[in-house]
Every structure is written in structure tokens, then in C-alpha cells.
Automatic annotation (TrEMBL):
An example molecular function term from Gene Ontology annotations: DNA binding
Protein known as: Transcriptional regulator, XRE family
InterPro entries the UniProt entry points to: Cro/C1-type_HTH, Lambda_DNA-bd_dom_sf, MLTR_LBD
Lineage: Bacteria, Bacillati, Actinomycetota, Actinomycetes, Geodermatophilales
Every HTH cro/C1-type domain range: 9-63
Pfam families with a match to the protein in the record: HTH_31, MLTR_LBD
Originating organism: Blastococcus haudaquaticus
Length: 253
């Protein structure tokens, strides 16, 4: 049974570590009215639910759940990437992936499943066990699993600490039980963690490819104005050379 909308909003507010007064001030409503909404003494309008959800940075998928709990129809559609309406999104994704070549880039969904990749990813997945590549392949599992990239990552404790921290934060912010379960699974894998800040500007991924050790910095691109659940949950992570040697090695390949 779905909890009341007031209970859900209160949970999201507490997850964001905001008081009723903080949220009321940010949303431009009275703290008294917000209190009545959370306790069920007042029924919020559709616009109020969406407004509070926006202030709380609730993901689009969960905003639909809030609307349903309040007795309203969902407003955010979820189309598959093969839907004709998503042709512009697919074209944009393909354009970005191709632009990054020869550097690796992957498209992932909210659960960190691999949606697409460019040809530059080939050196990174050399030697990865077939079962880790079976769709829907999870890129974080692939990265940290002993049968995946982990044995070739020369700074595994540092990279693993970065990945687990990032995943744990996303699991907390989104309240996604699948991310929580994935975090628990990856935490149990061997490899250690090292959260000592690196000397450079970001935590690099250093991975052995053949006789070379290549070093990458990652960047993430998202659809910042998406109002479709699928588009909002897609992100493109590119691995750019962290040194001239890596850049030349990839261009040579």
C-alpha cells in the first residue's frame, strides 16, 4: 500500500536534512501549511506537490509516485529509447559518444546499467568475464569485480573508495533500493578502500592495458532540462586522458 503523500514528502525533506521552516521558506509557503500537508490535515494541490518536489530535488520517477499518492495522475512520461519521440535524444547521445572517440565513453541509466558505448571503450573491457558483459551489464560491478577491471586497476583502493562513496551518496539521495543493494554488494568485494585525497585535481582511473598503464579522469554529461523519466536518468560518462602518454596511446590504437 502506498504511503500518504504527506508522509512521503516528510521523508524526502528529512533525507535532504531540511527543517519544515527551511523547506517552507525555500518553497514560499507557510510552515503551518507545510506541517498540515505532512500530517495529512491538508490535501496539497497538484501544483503544490510538484513545487515541493522540485524544491526537494526529487527524481522525476519519484515525483510521479508523489502525484499518485496525492490522488493525481503522473505527469512525467517514460519512453523507451526506441520510441520515435526519443529520436532526438538518441541522436544527441550518438553525437556525444562519437565526439569523444578515441577516448572511452559510456551511456548509463539510473541503475548504472550500460546503455551504449563508443569504440573507445574496447581497451578498458579487455579480459572482462563474459557474464559481466551480459545485458543489462552494470558498469560499477564490471569495474570493481575480481573478474572485471579490478585486477588491472593499479590504484584500485583509491578508485574503489571513490566509486563506493559516489554510489552510496546516490543511493541516499534517491532512496533507490536497487542502488542500496548494489552498494552493499560492491562493498563486500575485495580490493580495500583509500579515501586519501589525490595529489592532482581528481581521483584518476589508472588501468593496465597491455604493457601500458593508462590514466583517465572522468566527466559526466546529463540532459539538464529533461522532463521524460528515461532521458532524465541517462548520463554519459567519458574517460579523458589524465596525461599526454594516455592521449597518444589511445590515438595510436
Amino acid at each position: 500500500m502506498r504511503p500518504p503523500v504527506g508522509t512521503l514528502l516528510k521523508t524526502w525533506r528529512q533525507r535532504r536534512r531540511l527543517s519544515q521552516l527551511d523547506l517552507a521558506s525555500d518553497a514560499g509557503v507557510s510552515a503551518r501549511h507545510l506541517s498540515f500537508v505532512e500530517t495529512g490535515r491538508a490535501r496539497p494541490s497538484r501544483d503544490m506537490v510538484l513545487h515541493l518536489a522540485e524544491q526537494l530535488e526529487v527524481p522525476l520517477r519519484e515525483r510521479n509516485e508523489l502525484l499518485l499518492a496525492a490522488g493525481f495522475a503522473p505527469v512525467y512520461r517514460r519512453r523507451g529509447l526506441d520510441d520515435p519521440d526519443m529520436s532526438v535524444v538518441r541522436a544527441a547521445v550518438d553525437l556525444v559518444l562519437e565526439a569523444y572517440e578515441p577516448f572511452p565513453a559510456v551511456v548509463i541509466d539510473a541503475g548504472w546499467h550500460l546503455v551504449a558505448a563508443n569504440r573507445g571503450i574496447a581497451p578498458l573491457i579487455e579480459g572482462v568475464a563474459e557474464e559481466l558483459l551480459v545485458p543489462p551489464a552494470n558498469v560499477l560491478r564490471m569495474s570493481l569485480h575480481p573478474d572485471g577491471l579490478a585486477p588491472r586497476i593499479t590504484n584500485l583502493p583509491q578508485w574503489r573508495g571513490h566509486v563506493l562513496h559516489r554510489l552510496g551518496r546516490e543511493a541516499h539521495l534517491t532512496a533507490d533500493p536497487h542502488l542500496t543493494a548494489l552498494h552493499r554488494e560492491l562493498l563486500a568485494l575485495p580490493g580495500g578502500t583509500d579515501r586519501t585525497p589525490p595529489n592532482g585535481i581528481a581521483v584518476p582511473l589508472r588501468i593496465r592495458v597491455g604493457d601500458d598503464v593508462l590514466s583517465f579522469l572522468s566527466t559526466v554529461t546529463t540532459f539538464g532540462t529533461a522532463v521524460d523519466v528515461t532521458a532524465a536518468e541517462l548520463s554519459i560518462e567519458a574517460f579523458l586522458p589524465a596525461d599526454p602518454f594516455t592521449a597518444e596511446a589511445l590515438k595510436a590504437r
